[in-house]
Amino acid sequence: MPFGKYEGRFLIDLPEYYVVWYHNKGFPKGQLGLMLATVYELKLNGLENLIRNIKQRYPK
After folding, report:
1. Is the pTM of the predicted complex or chain greater than 0.90?
2. How confident is the model at residue 59 (pLDDT cuts 50, 70, 90)?
């Protein structure tokens, strides 16, 4: 996340309530909004472990 309370976190690591809040408020325009919408869909469908597994396999 590039700003705010969760600055520096991966989007997939944002708390679910925060991503849902963004969904209800409206995602920002541009690439960040698209990525947040994707994270919302992953969390909604219980697929966030797909991304977590990729993170574990390919650390920084």
Report:
1. no
2. confident
Dist. CA 10–CA 12, nearest whole Å: 5
In the 3-class helix/strand/coil scheme, how is the chain assigned residue by residue?
CCCCCCCCCCHHHCCHHHHHHHHHHCCCCCHHHHHHHHHHHHHHCCCHHHHHHHHHHCCC
| Euclidean distance between CA atoms 60 and 57, whole angstroms | 10
Question: pLDDT by residue (tens digit) across 36-56?
Answer: 999 999 999 999 999 988 888
Give the C-alpha separation, 26 to 54, whole Å.
28
Copy the structure tokens of residue 26.
């409206």
Between CA 8 and CA 20 the distance in angstroms is 19
